[in-house]
Amino acid sequence: MEAKVLQSLHVTTWVDSDSTFSAPSNSMRLCTQFEKKRRVSMLKCNLVGTIKPMIGDRAAGLKVSCTSQNSPASILESGTFTTEEDLVLKKKSEEIEPCLSGRCIYLVGMMGSGKTTIGQILSEVLGYSFFDSDKLIEQSVGGTAVADIFKLHGEAFFRNNETEVLHKLSQMHRLIISTGGGAVIRPINWKYMHKGISVFIDVPLDALAQRITAIGTASRPLLHHGSGDAYTQTLKRLSKLWEERSEAYTNAHVRVSLERIAAKLGHEDVCCVSPTQIAIEALIQIEDYLKK
Which domain of life is it from (predicted)? Predict the structure, then answer.
């Protein structure tokens, strides 16, 4: 099966040459593992496939490509783990990576929940490749932004592409995939995501509204502001989307609650929780799920 998939989905991989040598000492092993993760974090990963979503009674051939080089500078790229949290993240990732057995990790959650940022962190510490499903869809239609795809082709067209992208990715291994907020509404998408491990990033709606209002809603096709305060309108629309999707999010294997993290850390505001802390909690919850 995977051989067939690789004919249409080509991912440039890095081969761990260290695996051909005898087992190193503990200190040598840590250096080797660190170097492997550093090199993987700089990996240029290209995904090329033919996507043929149905539009009415006809199919449209779409080419998909994506690069993971747009990840921000990280603790891995800098070559040092500077804080206690960084060290905890590194240690936890080394513990859990062998247990994953190459399974993909799908991040789901409402728009603005930080799936892309968390996904990039997890991909770097686990030595996985990172993909954003929305970016893949944009590139499949010539670089057209999601908001413009909705305007030009409609939501059904976008959802068809989204499902096909998830289908292709589900046949691969060692990927961290950030999904769009609405990917959870189609049961078929869960069929594909459940081939790996799905992680729900749960952020309170008021915090989401603050984040999205701060950066604007131009790129959010499902957030249409009416008259009045931008935050109020955003929160109102997010609440409506939550009503439609909240039950679907319960299909995720793992739930990472920012309220729970904030409580454990003694923060009153979930906005004080850092991406690194969220990534650590995600690994802890994934580990607990694997032990069941």
Answer: Eukaryota
CA angle 210–200–10, rounded 5-degree value? 110
Residue 138 token pair: 């944009």
Task: For residue 24, list its beta bridge partners.
Answer: none
Q: Which phi and psi angles does 234 have, rounded to 5°?
A: -65, -45
How do residues 216-252 score in pLDDT, each as one tens digit? 555 455 455 555 678 888 898 999 999 999 999 999 9
pLDDT given at position 253: 98
Rounded (10°) angle between helices 26-41 and 115-126: 140
CATH number of 203's domain: 3.40.50.300
Beta-carbon contacts of residue 68 (< 8 Å; ≥ 6 apart): 43, 44, 45, 123, 129, 130, 131
Tokens of 107: 């991040």
Average pLDDT over residues 9-29: 32
The total number of structural domains in the chain stands at: 1
Nearest CA to 101 among 22, 170, 196? 196
- Res. 31: pLDDT tops 70: no
Q: Supply the pTM of this predicted model.
A: 0.75
CA–CA dist 69, 41 (Å, integer): 8
With 0-12 CB in 10 A as exposed, 13-18 as middle and 19+ as buried, what is 10?
A: middle
Angle at 280 between CA 263 and CA 110, to 5 degrees: 75
Domain that holds residue 45: 2-291
Is the pLDDT at 176 greater than 90, yes or no? yes
State pLDDT tens for residues 103-128: 999 999 999 899 999 999 999 999 99
> What is the distance between the alpha carbons of residues 114 and 279, in angstroms, rounded to a whole number?
10
- List the helix and strand counts (H, then E) for the chain: 13, 9
